[in-house]
Write a structure and sequence with these properties.
The chain has 63 residues and is mainly alpha-helical. The protein is built from three helices and two strands; from the N terminus they run αββαα.
Length: 63
């Protein structure tokens, strides 16, 4: 998606697989792009879970 002069974010690029002109939807490719787009934030959230929840709890405790 980001190797051409018409670079777009992966989430916008996924919409290119939904052909509105009647050519059909490439479900396999569209699903793969969407999963790859959602994977980095999900992994980051899982890795940083303790730090995120610890920060929220520390900010809520007074004293």
């Amino acid at each position: 998606m980001l190797t051409t002069n018409r670079a777009v974010p992966m989430t916008v690029g996924a919409s290119f697989f939904f052909d509105a002109s009647g050519g059909g939807v490439k479900w396999g490719t569209a699903s793969a792009v969407m999963v790859l787009g959602a994977l980095p934030p999900a992994l980051l959230g899982l890795v940083m879970y303790r730090q995120i929840s610890g920060s929220m709890i520390a900010g809520a405790v007074k004293g």
